[in-house]
Every structure is written in C-alpha cells, then in structure tokens.
Amino acid sequence: MNNHVYDLTGQKFGRLTVVSFIRSQKGNALWKCKCECGNEHEALAQGLKRGNVKSCGCLQIENGKKYAHNLRSKEIQKKAHERRREVDFVDGTFKSALTRNVSTRNTSGVKGVHWDNRRKKWQATITLKQKSHFLGRYSNKEDAIKARLDAEEKYFKPILENDK
C-alpha cells in the first residue's frame, strides 16, 4: 500500500466491509470490499467515505422493488388513462384539451392558428373528437384567428355547457 493512502481495511461503509487495498492511481485508492449479501465489490475510497457507495448493487435492487409502484408501466398508464376518460371525456373529446393554455411554441398566440411557411399564409385548424379539422388558409392573421374562434364557439361551447 502507498504511504499516502489511509488504511480502510476492516471499516464498514453501509453494507460493505473493506477487505483489502487493490491499487492507487492519481490519488484514487481502490478497495476490495465484501457486501452483507456475500458478493465482492471494488470501490473507490472517496465513494465509500462520501456515502455514494453503500453496497455491491443489491441495495439499489431492493429499493427498486420497494418503490416499483412508482414506475410507469403500461398497465398503470392504461388505468390512469381510463380514470382520466371517466372524469374528463365528454362526447368524444377531452374537456381539458378545450381549455388548455396556448403552447409556448405557438407563434400566433391563438391555439389552432399557425403560419404555413410553404404557402405563406396563416392556417386555422381545430381538433374535435380526436380528429383535426382544417378551417382554411388566410392571408391575414386576424381572419385565421376569427375562423378559429368561430369554430370554438360552434363546436366547443356545446360540449363545455353540457357538462355543467
């Protein structure tokens, strides 16, 4: 063992007990450790001392099983979607989608109105019952906004009023 390495042999860090010194490179001492589960593990002294390394990996596996209910499995996502449909779904449309804020990426300031760069016109669309409906292309931004607002009045207002 090098003179500048503090001897950790026999010390316990979490589930690891230091067994022997392996080597030191550029001031990083590597130690052979024995885990409570019986596995051997190599760890740097700084990781042991700082508490970053507490086991051979068995602790992470156990914690993963313990907190597995937080994982977003397909089954959990499906149940969450079903609950959302019960509360938020009216006449084939999610109410929250009708009242959602404008995206920060939106350049017009109005949902469903965007600049069609290829045609050099403003385009208005509306989504109803999970289908997008084309409302037209307009040279003037205000005309596209008016078309969108008229469509919201026609299609969204009845859905929102029926739910009250």
Task: Give the structure's gist in a few sentences.
The protein is of the alpha+beta class and 164 residues long.
Q: Measured on Cα atoms, how large is the radius of gyration?
A: 30 Å
Shape: elongated
Approximate helicity band: 25-40%
Strand order of the largest sheet: 1-2-3-4
Number of strands: 9
Overview of the molecule:
The protein has helices at residues 45-50, 58-66, 74-88, 95-99, 141-162, and strands at residues 12-13, 16-25, 28-35, 40-44, 89-90, 93-94, 113-116, 121-128, 131-138. With 164 residues, the protein is α+β, with helices and mostly antiparallel strands. A hairpin with a 2-residue loop joins strand 2 (16-25) and strand 3. It is elongated, with a radius of gyration of 30 Å. 13% of the residues are buried.
List the helices and strands and how they pair.
Layout: E1 12-13, E2 16-25, E3 28-35, E4 40-44, H1 45-50, H2 58-66, H3 74-88, E5 89-90, E6 93-94, H4 95-99, E7 113-116, E8 121-128, E9 131-138, H5 141-162
Structure keywords:
35% helix; four-stranded antiparallel β-sheet; three-stranded antiparallel β-sheet; alpha+beta; elongated; 164 residues; 9 strands
